[in-house]
Write a structure and sequence with these properties.
The structure holds two protein chains of two kinds.
Chain A: E1 4-12, E2 15-23, E3 28-32, H1 39-47, E4 54-59, E5 62-66, E6 71-72, E7 80-83, H2 95-100, H3 108-121, H4 137-150, E8 155-159, H5 167-182, E9 188-192, H6 195-201, E10 204-209, E11 212-217, H7 219-224, H8 229-234, E12 238-246, E13 252-256, E14 261-264, E15 270-276, E16 282-285, E17 298-310, E18 313-320, E19 323-329, H9 330-335, E20 343-348, E21 354-357
Parallel strand pairs in A: 3-9, 3-10, 7-8, 8-9
Antiparallel strand pairs in A: 1-2, 1-4, 4-5, 5-6, 10-11, 12-13, 12-15, 13-14, 15-21, 16-20, 17-18, 17-20, 18-19
Helix pairs in contact in A: 3-4
Chain B: H1 2-32, H2 35-43, H3 45-78, H4 84-96, H5 99-110, H6 117-122, H7 131-155, H8 159-167, H9 172-201, H10 204-210, H11 220-230, H12 232-259
The chains are: A alpha+beta, B mainly alpha.
Chain lengths: ~350, ~270
């Protein structure tokens, strides 16, 4: 099996895309970044839908694009399975006919049976004769995936394949997609703006910012050791800016922009971004005795700005000298009577505080 | 909320006024034409000749327009190139051209001593005052109606459908034939209906460029005009027939669009 390498330099409106990504066969690279960072353009370059000013796309032994040698294979000559953000199902064709469209190199009389076989593999027998307009979001996504795989592509490119789904459908679809991809022996590139999704589906995560690769590694590596504040932000961490100096006891003291001081076990000096994950932050009533012995060295006074329930957890937006986000259980919210306007103290451990020099 | 009290009735009154004004002449034609006159019209061989000529010349003109216009509109809708808006303006020009001017223009181009009529003459081809000249005149005046609609229909397509088709192994021609045309079909058919309606009603350009010879160039509108001076009842009868035929074509085309699978294409 062959790997995919995409090397490209091109101007995309205000930003300049400059990337070199390699994905091994059977691996899934999740490309994450803000919208407009060049994620989708990278896929389009790989598929031949966008021609970069300079670049190379090589899939195994086949060179699909080489601007120096004047090679530029047409999209239909590159074997790319492409799942578009809105799925791009042909509205005038039934589900099976959409899949059969990908089977044009097969004898005509075999196409329908094969297309229905693909749909069956994705649990879509019941809707094989339906037109896309009558399908649910999750069904459309699976038809689109079946259609892309039916081509028996050499690479699979997924452009935000789950972002058109509602939150409930998405969770199930994420697991399914991860399972399908685990059995795939070709290189897969998944574009998403959701780090959690990237972590769940991708073997590796590449973070792109303004057309450049910022960091690449496993999701846990990125979350534990974000190379930049941008990566930390993407992994969902709270970011506090300040200046770090040694505290004397082996820890580092960070004086935040708002004047508060926090501790970290990381040793960095100078201007830093201190990051902490929302689930590391605990919330206690503002009146609690600040001098009580506790392992959490960091304590900031704040007021609750918002209370948002996500599944079994509650995300609290906190505002004070700094903006924070804390994740607590629904029980804690009821027990402590947390509501917008409540004065609280947010605490977390020095060991949960990552420092990144900026 | 004082606005709500009078604004709704205002909109309603406007619609009713427009509707009454627009259907009044059509209703008048049928009220003034008894069933007897309608049948008498169809007994008149000259009227039948005109009707037959109108139907097949307009059908031929529309066929030419669709065959050439569909790929042309697709190109305009899917490619951006320098001078694209100039090209679109030129295509739309016949829409605002008075029919008489169109007739003069066609004569100047294809008539004897015309721009290319001269060379045609040398080659032994004579268009003016023949049935071919009727088809040419109809094509000229009706084409922009189809081109505009088709261009809009192709422009409205989701570009990712075309891209998805390519990534699934289909070339540009297959994508055009199997994705773009079926997906744009309602718009294309609407354009076809408009063009056909315009071709059936064409009068000025045909009269100047093709003349009004019974059985050769005399289409229904020309036949109506000929009767208008001498026999108003016959003119009315023929008018009623033309209205019925036009309405039947419009209705058939609309029903065909509704029955087609492309109906599900309604914007998402």
């Amino acid at each position: 099996m062959s790997s995919l390498r995409v090397e490209a330099a091109t101007d995309l409106g205000p930003i300049r895309l400059e990337l070199d990504l390699t994905v091994a066969a059977g691996r899934c690279l999740a490309v994450v970044g803000a919208s407009g960072a060049g994620k989708s353009s990278t896929l389009r370059i790989a598929a031949g839908l966008l021609r970069p000013r300079a670049g190379r796309v090589v899939c195994g032994d086949a060179t699909w694009l080489d601007t120096e040698r004047g090679i530029n294979r047409r999209p239909e000559e590159r074997r790319c399975g492409y799942v578009f953000q809105d799925y791009a199902l042909f509205p005038h064709r039934r589900a099976w006919q959409n899949v059969a469209y990908a089977l044009r190199d097969r004898p005509r009389e075999h196409r329908e049976a094969e297309a229905r076989g693909w749909l069956s593999r994705f649990g879509l027998d019941a809707v094989a004769d339906a037109r896309p307009a009558t399908l649910s979001g999750g069904e459309r996504q699976r038809v689109a995936l079946a259609r892309a795989l039916a081509r028996r592509p050499d690479v699979l490119l997924l452009d935000e394949p789950l972002s058109a789904l509602d939150a409930t459908t998405r969770a199930g679809a994420e697991r399914e997609l991860a399972e399908v991809l685990a059995q795939t022996e070709i290189p897969v590139v998944l574009v998403t703006h959701d780090f959690t999704q990237a972590a769940l589906i991708g073997d590796e995560v590449a973070v792109i910012d303004s057309g450049r690769l910022v960091q690449r590694g496993s999701a846990s590596e990125l979350a534990a050791r974000p190379a930049t504040a941008f990566v930390a932000d993407f992994t969902g961490a709270v970011i506090l800016r300040g200046t770090a100096a040694p505290a004397g006891d082996g820890t580092t003291e960070v004086t935040l922009a708002g004047g508060d001081r926090i501790r970290s076990t990381d040793t960095v000096q100078g201007p830093v971004a201190a990051t902490v994950f929302p689930w590391e932050i605990t919330v206690e009533p503002a009146g609690a005795w600040a001098g009580a012995p506790r392992s959490a060295q960091n304590r900031l006074d704040a007021e609750i700005l918002s209370v948002t329930t996500i599944g079994g957890r509650v995300r609290l937006g906190l505002t004070g000298a700094e903006r924070l986000t804390a994740e607590v259980s629904t029980t804690a919210v009821a027990h402590l009577d947390l509501r917008p306007g409540t004065a609280v103290a947010a605490t977390w451990k020095a060991a949960a505080t990552r420092l990144i020099a900026v | 909320m004082t606005q709500a009290r009078w604004f709704g009735p205002l909109l309603f009154t406007a619609l009713v006024t427009a509707l009454l004004f627009l259907i009044l002449p059509v209703v008048a034609i049928f009220v003034d034409t008894g069933p007897g006159e309608l049948l008498a019209t169809l007994d008149d061989p000259a009227a039948v000749d005109a009707l037959t000529l109108s139907l097949w010349t307009s059908a031929l003109a529309v066929a030419i327009i669709v065959v050439v216009g569909t790929p042309a509109a697709y190109l305009l809708a899917t490619r951006s190139f320098r001078g694209r808006s100039v090209v679109i303006t030129l295509i739309e020009l016949p829409l605002v051209l008075p029919p008489a001017v169109a007739g003069i223009g066609l004569l100047a181009a294809l008539g004897p001593n015309g721009l290319i009529g001269d060379s045609l003459d040398d080659a032994g081809v004579r268009v003016v005052l023949t049935t071919a000249s009727v088809v040419l005149a109809l094509t000229f005046v009706a084409a922009p109606f189809y081109l505009r609609q088709a261009e809009a229909a192709f422009s409205a397509l989701d570009r990712t459908w075309l891209e998805a088709s390519r990534t699934l192994g289909a070339g540009e021609a297959t994508t055009f034939a199997q994705v773009a045309i079926p997906a744009a079909l309602p718009g294309l058919i609407a354009g076809l209906a408009l063009a056909w309606g315009r071709a059936l009603g064409e009068f000025g350009a045909t009269l100047m460029f093709a003349g009004s010879f019974r059985g050769v160039t005399q289409t229904v509108p020309l036949a109506i005009y000929e009767r208008f001076a001498t026999d108003f009842t016959a003119a009315l009868g023929l008018s009623a027939v033309l209205v019925a035929v036009s309405a039947a074509i419009l209705l058939t085309v609309k029903l065909a669009t509704h029955a087609s699978p492309a109906r599900v294409l309604a914007p998402r």
